[in-house]
Amino acid sequence: MSEAEKATDNGWRGSKELWLDAAYQVLLESGVDNVRILTLAKRLKLSRTSFYWFFKDRDALLEDLLRLWQEKNTASLLRQAQAYAHTLAEATLNLFDCWLDPAIFDSQFEHAVRSWGIQSQKVSQAVNEADQLRLNAIKAMFIRFGCAPLEADVRSRALYLTQIGYISMNTTEDLATRMRRVPAYAGIFSGVYPHATELARFHRRHDFDG
């Protein structure tokens, strides 16, 4: 089949990414129980049989959806924890980027997957493994800046579990409120308050003129 024929074919049946994105949207809107082939087909205005060009079955779709969450949220958090920083406060602000930029860390996706984990042992295990990877990365960040292992462990847990609590409770704050709290959060979690220049860079990253 030529590339042109493939493009035409995908235009008729959709694409794997299109089906996966629809599954993501439904998961966020109404939970995993509603991520059904017929539901997605109606949403996309495609035939149900089109789905099987891209996925073996619903389980295969759900596996890809879980993989997307791992690549989106866990991988991004690990990158932020390992990102260059001159000070521990700046490193902490790098992590805070996750909580403010959905392009880096999708909190709605996180909440939906954690809710899904209540129903699925496999997903619950994946969530537990992700939590440990993330905690290890944050702990390593603190150790990199001179914290003793036990202190690094406690600080990483305080930082991470606080944010997961925000997500699990669907806590919302406007940007100004969040930004006012950032210096104190950074100081409490890391033991070092960010300098004005570090905060200014952080504000610019999030288009905040405080």
The major beta sheet can be summarized as: none
Number of DSSP-assigned strands: 0
CATH architecture of the largest domain: Orthogonal Bundle
Instruction: Describe the global form.
Output: elongated
Radius of gyration: 20 Å
**What share of the residues does DSSP label as strand, in percent?**
under 5%
Query: CA-to-CA gap between the ends?
Result: 56 Å
What value does the average pLDDT take? 93
Poorly predicted regions are 1-10
Secondary-structure map:
Layout (H helix, E strand, L loop, with lengths): L2 H11 L2 H15 L6 H8 L13 H25 L5 H13 L6 H13 L1 H24 L4 H20 L6 H16 L5 H10 L5
Helix pairs in contact: 2-3, 2-4, 4-5, 4-7, 5-9, 5-10, 6-7, 7-8
Would you mind describing this structure in some detail?
By secondary structure, the protein is mainly alpha-helical. It folds into two domains: 1-55, Arc Repressor Mutant, subunit A (Orthogonal Bundle); 65-205, Tetracycline Repressor, domain 2, CATH 1.10.357. Helices cover 74% and strands 0% of the residues. It has ten helices and no strands. α5 (88-100) runs parallel beside α10 (196-205). The chain starts with a helix and ends in a 5-residue tail after the last helix. The relative contact order is 0.10.
